[in-house]
Amino acid sequence: MSIRHANTPSPEPPANDQPGAEAHSDAPLAAGLRIQTFGCRLNFYESEVMRRHAEAAGLDDALIINTCAVTSEAQRQAEQAIRRAHRQAPERPIIVTGCAAQIAPERFAGMPQVARVLGNEEKLTAEAWGASDDQARVQVNDIMQATSLAPQLIDGFDQQTRAFIQVQQGCDHRCTFCIIPYGRGNARSVPMGDVIEQVRRLVENGTKEVVLTGVDITSYGPDLPGAPSLGQLVRRLLAAVPELPRLRLSSIDSIEIDQHLLHVLANEPRFMPHLHLSLQAGNDLILKRMKRRHLRADALRVCRQIRALRPDVVFGADLIAGFPTETEEQFQDSLALIEDCGLIYLHVFPYSEREGTPAARMPQVAKPLRKERAARLRAAGDAALAAFSQSQIGSRCTALTEQGGVARSPQFLPLALPGFAAGQLVEVEVQTNAAAAPGNAAPSLAGQPLSAAVLS
Q1: Domain 1-250 adopts which CATH fold?
Q2: Which of 204, 197, 192, 212 is nearest to 156 (CA)?
C-alpha cells in the first residue's frame, strides 16, 4: 500500500515533512462545527461524510479531529492539535476519530480534553453521531472483522473543483513499515454501480474532476461479484458518466496496474496524464526488507510502458529516506530513481519508527542522516519539477480553476489564473510568471506558479 495510503494524486502533496500531517496555525478555530483532517485523501473524503452526519445530529459547535496513524509523528501532531484546540475553546466538545483513534483508542480516551472517540467504521454511521448522553464515550469496534464496505453518498464538496470518491478500503498487504492495515482493516471494495451513482450525483451538482481514492485502490474488486479490477472500474465509470470532464486516481501500486487501466491511459483523454506511484525505495534489498511486491526493474518497466502509451504523462511517487539498514549506496539507488523513472511530484519523508511494525525492530539509521537523505531527495524532486515546469512554457492545455486564483493543468501543474471562480475549465497557454523572483521562473509547487494566458 502507499505510505500515504492514498495524496494525496496524490493530487495535493503534503504541506510538511511528514505524511499524514496537516499544516497548523495557532489562530483560534472559528465557531460552529469544525473538522480538522490529518492524513490521506481518503480521510478528507470521510470528513465530508462525517460533516453531514454531525450536522444532522445537531453537533453545531463540535470539533472533530480526524487522525492519521501512518507515523508516530502524525499521531503526535493530532494530540498536539487536541490540546491546542482545548486551550483555545475549553467549552467546545472534541470528538476524535480516524486511524490513530482506531489503533490506540485508549490513548485518546485518556486525554481529558476529549469528549468522545469513534473508530473508523463507526465514524461513517449516522447512529454514532447521536448527541444523546446514552452514547458510549468510546465506540471502536474490531476493524479486522469488517467484511464489506457500504457506499457513502455525497452530493457535493465545499468547493466544486475536485471531489474525492472512496472506491476501496483496507489493505491485505503487510509492508514492514506500515501500521495502517490495523487501522483500516482488510481490503473491501465499493460495488461499481454505487461508485458510478456517486460520481453521477457529483457531476450533476457541478463537480468537474473526480479522484478515486482508497487505502490500496489497485487491489479493488476481488471481493465483488465477478472480481472486477480497478482498470475495469475506470473504463465502466468513464463510459457510464460521459459528462464527467476529468478523472484522476490517488496513489497506486505500480505492480497491480492491469491491461484495462493501460487501455484507458492510451485511449481516454478524460483520464488525466498524472499517476502517483507507491514506490518507497529504489534498491532491491531495501524493497525486500520493506516487504514490497515490486523490484527496481518493475518500476522502470511500468514507467517506460505507460510513457510509451501516453507521452504526456507525468509521475509522482512516495519515497522513504533512511529506512532501517539503508546504506549510502542503497540510498543512491532511490535518488537515481527520480531521474530513471522521470518522477516530478514527490512525497518524501524520513523513515519514522511505528511501534508494532517489523521495521521498528530492525537496525535503525541515525535520525539526522534520515533527514539529510530526505532533504536530498526533495532537492532532486524540486529540480525535476522545475525542469518540467520550464518545459511547459508555451504549451496549451485545459486548466481547471481552484480557489485563490490558481488552476491545474492535466498534469496537475499549478498555474496562476486570477479572476475566475473555482470549478471552471479554461483553455490557456502556459507562460513564465513575470512576478516570480529572478532565477525562479519555473518553481516547485511550494513556490510561485507559472502564469496562464486565456486563449480566445
Answers
A1: Transcription Regulator spoIIAA (3.30.750)
A2: 204
